[in-house]
């Protein structure tokens, strides 16, 4: 892990044992969980972007997007969203120059 990397990770522990017990239901469960993860991450990403202070917009635009600075990944039974923008930890952990959602 990089110290400046911010990430939200969702994982369900014990899901593989549960899916084995239900046979074919496992495939359906995987599909439904993937949909739920995508919907949840898109909702969370939108709220995080809305609350992120803005100067030039690089940090806000990187959250929950695939590209040079951000990522949004969906794997079986797991979803990840984050940013690699170097100053993200300062914005998260210190008072921002702008009010939440305000464009500077």
List the helices and strands and how they pair.
Blueprint (H helix, E strand, L loop, with lengths): L5 E6 L3 H7 L3 H27 L6 H5 L7 E6 L2 E6 L4 H6 L11
Antiparallel strand pairs: 1-3, 2-3
Helix pairs in contact: 1-2
Task: Give the structure's gist in a few sentences.
The chain is α+β, with helices and mostly antiparallel strands.
Distance between the termini: 31 Å
Percent strand equals 15-25%
Order of strands in the sheet with the most strands? Answer: 1-3-2
How many DSSP H or I helices?
4
Mean pLDDT: 76
Largest sheet: 3 strands, antiparallel
Please supply descriptive tags for the structure shown above.
3 strands, 43% helix, three-stranded antiparallel sheet, alpha+beta, 4 helices
What does this structure look like?
- This protein is α+β, with helices and mostly antiparallel strands and about 100 residues long.
- The protein has one domain.
- It is about 45% helix and about 15% strand.
- A 3-stranded antiparallel β-sheet has the order 1-3-2.
- Strand 2 and strand 3 form a beta hairpin.
- The two termini are about 30 Å apart.
């Amino acid at each position: 892990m990089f110290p400046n990397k911010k990430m939200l990770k969702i994982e369900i522990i014990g899901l593989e044992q549960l899916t084995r017990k239900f046979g074919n239901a496992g495939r359906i469960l995987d599909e439904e969980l993937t949909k739920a993860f995508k919907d949840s991450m898109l909702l969370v990403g939108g709220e995080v972007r809305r609350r992120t202070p803005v100067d030039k917009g690089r940090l806000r635009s990187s959250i929950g997007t695939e590209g040079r600075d951000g990522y949004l990944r969906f794997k079986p039974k797991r979803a990840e969203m984050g940013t690699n923008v170097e100053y993200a930890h300062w914005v998260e952990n210190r008072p921002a120059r702008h009010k939440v959602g305000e464009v500077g």
